[in-house]
Design a protein that fits this description.
The chain is of the alpha/beta class. It folds into four domains: 80 residues, no CATH class; 62 residues, no CATH class; 124 residues, 5'-nuclease (Rossmann fold, 3-Layer(aba) Sandwich), CATH 3.40.50.1010; 66 residues, Nucleic acid-binding proteins (OB fold (Dihydrolipoamide Acetyltransferase, E2P)), CATH 2.40.50. It is built from twelve helices and eleven strands. Strands 6-10-11-9-8-7 form a six-stranded mixed sheet. Strand 8 and strand 9 form a beta hairpin. Helix 1 runs antiparallel to helix 2, helix 3 runs antiparallel to helix 4 and helix 8 crosses helix 9. The protein is elongated, with a radius of gyration of 38 Å. It starts with a helix and ends with a strand.
Length: 356
Amino acid sequence: MLNKANKERGTAFFLVKMIIVLIVGFGGYYFSNFLMTKGLFTAPINLLYMTLVGLMLGYILGTPIASYFEFLWTKFRSYMATISPLSILAAGLGLTVALIISVLLNTLLENIPGFTWYWSLILTVLLASGSMWFFTANKKLLAGFSSNTVVKEIEKPKKLNQELVIDTSAIIDGRIADVVETDFLFGKIIVPKFILAELQNIADSSDNLRRTKGRRGLEILDKLIQQNKIETEVVNDDFAEVNEVDEKLVQLCQARGAALITTDYNLNRVAGLQNIKVLNINQLANAIRPVFLPGESLALYIVKSGREPGQGLAYLDDGTMVVVEDSANLVGSTVDAVVTSHLQTNMGRIIFARPD
């Protein structure tokens, strides 16, 4: 699309420049001819020389003039792109009505003494301007009157402007960056300054684990700001009278009418009780895990014994735990198992199986 637009602009620039070159070239020719009639030029070859001078002068002057016309043409196209089809239809209908009325009035007024052509022109211009303005201003009535038989205004899709407030746990978790890259989120991610301050405090912690998490969170936040899939904005909204960060997040979501992105189970519950839409990354991860129906076969590596006698534990690639009956003596080996059932818990999905 961009290459096409550049090609169109280049064509317009070339045409305008060539027109200017030809106009100035003809001007040089006629000016030379005029000087010959006055006796200032005598040799016919001077016609050719002056024509070449005109063409060269037109080529030099044509570049800035054509660039200016190109700019005006681009602005005009941009403006026309903002006009809806229904507005153009309404203006055209208004002009048609004005012309019909003008013809009828001219027929009645042409016999009046003093009614000349310029009075007819003024009357037509006034009628056309008023009629086009009226029909354009009331284009919605036109759409309703058409009863779906006339082309209605093409509405532009509304941009989803849902604000998504993200908390510290979701940033440190890191999976939000991968979710954003998949285009499953719409709207704008809001990062409060107090969340940024909390991340900085964690990154400056003397505890190695907390410091690592904080630095990872800052890296993920920088990645979110740099990506162009969804807008990310750091805002200064704060609630000085509130000390708890979780409570600040809840109040911010309520004030902005925003949703909350988190991986914190307790914050999820508290926000949900206050009618705040919550996007929990853990719940999303659990929801998209593959579902294995009873009877399906799996090749499982038994990692360790289970809590109940005889049980062995295995894990799928996505971390789903599989409880395999009668496999406690198979720890460290791979067995073929058949799924018997599964259980969904708040912590995730557990699959039960038995050796095949």
